[in-house]
Structure formats: C-alpha cells, structure tokens
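My main concern about presentation is that the manuscript never shows what a single data entry looks like. The format is easy to grasp once an entry is in front of the reader. For illustration, here is how one protein appears when written out as sequence plus structure tokens:
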Amino acid sequence: MAIAIYTLIDGTNYGQRLQNLALQTVLEQITGSRVETVGYYRPLSGKYQDTLSLRNRVSYLVYEALTLHYPPARLWRRFWQRTAFYRFNRDRIHLAPRQFAVGEENIAAPNYWSERYDGFIAGSDQIWNLDIPTVTPLAFLRFARPGQRYSYAASVCCAPEVLHETDWAREGLREMDGLSVREDVGLDTVEQITGRRPVWDLDPALLLDADAWNRLLALPAGRSRRPYILVYQIDSSADPALEPWARAFADARGWQLVHAREIGCGPAGWVRLVRDASLVVADSYHGLIFSLLFRVPFVLSSSRGEGMNTRLSSLLNRLELPPRHYDGMPDAEILEGVDWQAVHARLADLRRESLEHLTNTVARLEGRESDACAVTL
C-alpha cells in the first residue's frame, strides 16, 4: 500500500515541517509502509532537491541581503536556520523522488504520481489557504484519480467567499473522496460548497504525545537552569505591544527573555525551546500546540488576523479553554490557570477520534470499504 502526503514543503516554518513529520509517522504506524511527501515548489533552478542545496541557501542569503537589507547577524542566523531545515527534511521527511513544479499546476491523471501511489492525503497546515502563492489546484489532489483523494485536518484560513468564487478550488473540494478539516469555520465552508459535512480533526502534531515527540526528535532530557519566557511571534508588526509586555513580565521575575526568531534553530531545536520554557508568548498555532503538549503555561496574541484567530479558537474551544490573551489576564492565572489533567484527558479523547478517522481513511484507500464518501462523525 503506497500512500503519499500532499502538503506545503517550502520555507522555514516550524509548524509546517513538524505537522508533516507527525502525519508521516502516524500513517506509517497505521499502514506499516513507507509514506512519502509530495508538494509544489517554485524552484530557483532544477529539481526540488536542488532547493535544499548549499547553492540555494547562499542564494537566499544574497537575496535577503539585497532586498530585505537584513543586518549581518540576522543573515547568519537565517543561513543556519535554512541549513537546519535542510537537514530536517533530508533526515526525517520521506520526500518523493519527484515533486510538482511550475507548469504542472493543472496536471491530470494518469501521471507519474497517480500511478506511483494508491492514494493521497492532503494536509494539514494551510493547505487550502488560497492566499498562499504555492496553493494551487494540486492542493485539492486534482492530479489524482477518483478514489485517491482524501484530506486530513486541512486548513482553509482564507475568506469563505474566495473558495466559493475560485472555480478550481470549488470543484476540487467537490471532487474530494473524503474531507477532514481542523477549524470549525472550515466545517461550514466546506459543507456549503460540497453538500457534505467534513469531520473535524486534530492537527497531526497533536496525534503524538510529549513522550513520542521527545523520542521522535531525540531531544535531550536536560532543561535550562535559568527560567525563561519564549517569545514566538511570527508577525511582530501585527502586535507591537506583545514583546514589551513579555519583557516586563520576565524582568519582574528575573527571568530570561528568548526570541525564537533570534536563535536560528531547526524544528527539533524549536520544540526543545518550547518544551523547556517557563512561559510561551506566541501568535502561532503550533506555538499553542506544543505548549499544550508539554504542559507549558502560555498566552496568545489576538492580533494575527481572522484566519489565525479561527485556528486558535477552534482548538481552545474543543479543549474547553478560554482565549488566554496576554493583555487580558492576571499574572497568577497566566502561570497557574490551566488544569493540565483535564486538558490532556480531553486531548486524549480527541486524539482517539482523529486516529479513528485517519484509520478509516486508510481503509478506504486500501479498498477495505466500498463507500468512498466523506467520513462522518
């Protein structure tokens, strides 16, 4: 049984790479077979593997120096961050021998991919966010044959009317054999377009518990001796008050303030930063996810826009947690306000449901069930 994941594969986004690894790991446990990843890229030159080369990393260095005017220290961190991501992809992600490139956005079956694999699972991450340039008709698996097209915890994120008004996205959703999303708003949006109610599933990163992540990433057991606040702010311009608040909170306690963007680490190093923090201050969905997994107190920004807020609120609501915005909570509640036992009991229930949905999807792809309709709760 040969199943492939279709997901976003470019850039240096921690959540993107970690959800890819998680879904790969879980699918391989379910199928007992190697699971490969395919995606779409816009190359500087040559094959996708070339984009992971030293030449490519140096090219990005020059590009960021000339166009973004990054100072030398930041350029150096970016180079080593890309190097760490290159090694992560090389060592941990089973990339398919061929990836989709420019000119293949509308390729139809039969083709190399539809013949190589028995089925595809699109997900997770912002795989159906049409605001992202690398989200094309391929993200809706239109290159695959009927019966091969499933999603897992796919993220819509863009405004619902964008999906309705984009012909290839609307038709791509209708042609999917099984539908799974990770935001509550995605349930309604997809149902309006397809007439079928998708299932809500956990992001793949939450399918593994903290112990599994420690083993998978071979993280050392030791923790930092000095308490620190980890600030993981993807868009600092959206909420300029977040960093000063975090600094004041740290200074009042004699804690260190660590900015994830200033470390230049890869996905494994980033997970360790979250795990060992005394508090995580984030505007990131996966910043929230790994804080939950490792029982690290967290507060969030509410200023990343509707798409991010929807993702955060969907997960928090399912776990019966309040929004936890940093600018609206007393200090004592920030550090002590989460009933971790209750949260993880609820998370365990959601994990069992999501694993059952994913197992049913694999069974359909293997032909062990004749009904190829969307999985329903």
Notes: DSSP finds 14 helices and ten strands in the chain. Residues 209 and 215 are 10 Å apart (CA to CA).
